[in-house]
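Hi team,

Below is the intake form for GMP synthase [glutamine-hydrolyzing] from Flavimaribacter sediminis. Please confirm the fields before the structure is written into the shared record.

FORM ID: S-0412
PROTEIN: GMP synthase [glutamine-hydrolyzing]
ORGANISM: Flavimaribacter sediminis
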Amino acid sequence: DWSMAGYREQAIREIREKVGDGRVICALSGGVDSSVAALLIHEAIGDRLNCILVDHGLMRKNEAAEVVAMFHDHYNLNLKLVDASDRFILALEGEADPEVKRKTIGRLFIDVFEEEAKAIGGADFLAQGTLYPDVIESVSFTGGPSVTIKSHHNVGGLPERMNMQLVEPLRELFKDEVRLLGRELGLPESFIGRHPFPGPGLAIRCPGGVTREKLDILREADAIYLDEIRKAGLYDAIWQAFAVLLPVQTVGVMGDGRTYEYVCALRAVTSVDGMTADFYHYDMDFLGRAATRIINEVRGINRVVYDVTSKPPGTIEWE
Ligand code: XMP
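The structure came back. Fields below:
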């Protein structure tokens, strides 16, 4: 794609101009956005880039290992996996307010990057894969008064004490453009086609207080749901699909016994840029299959419901 080849050249020039002979630390999330940002910056400044993948304990099943393997197999950049899951989960434990959760996660991310920057002898820049919709949705809601819908963990600048500047080479792009750019940079197709995943991860898919136990239940249900979607050949037709663990227990029956366990909500939407979305129209057989597997295979869930809300008025994530 010629326009993306042009964008790549221009972005690399701009990164070189901004960074000079400085050092950049890049917050890799494992998603397409931060991966593309990292590859651009690596092309611009080579080994003066250090990538950090923070395992905040809020990732999907096997995600950290898959991301590390992908980069290891295809690219030659500095990537460090930092296990900070205890810290994040401890800080979130019992917190039910969505904005407090998001801000807590954002603050801890900054703490970890600050420590990692220190560990490599200091960095002048922090790179993020912020997209255009992230920027505008954090600022205001189109057509209305200026209201924050959600604080995106990766928008909003850095604390002054950090003495680091932001590098955000994708700030003007939409998701479909980032995917084109990823292709241009040789990212494997399986990676480019991945559904978006929010920085605050599973924490914002556990309405109510987050606990390690709930995260484990959610992670299993989510993996089964995505497995069924792939098996049905639906993955690429859907913009984003995930499970949500509701803070509600309901009564069920299993064999001769009564159960009293959590409700799992399934979400799937189609969208072009994440700004608006329609709920995905599955056939009921698919939903029945996914629900049966989740209830049979995940201890802690005895009921599954499907979310038929579009955006607006709903948002894609529940928090
Ligand atoms: P909402 O829920 O606002 O989400 O309709 C729109 C898209 O953005 C993703 N999302 C985030 N991505 N950091 C991110 O990197 C965040 O804090 C965040 N919150 C939501 C969401 O998954 C959807 O694709």
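SUMMARY LINE: The first strand starts at residue 24 and ends at 28.

Thanks, M.
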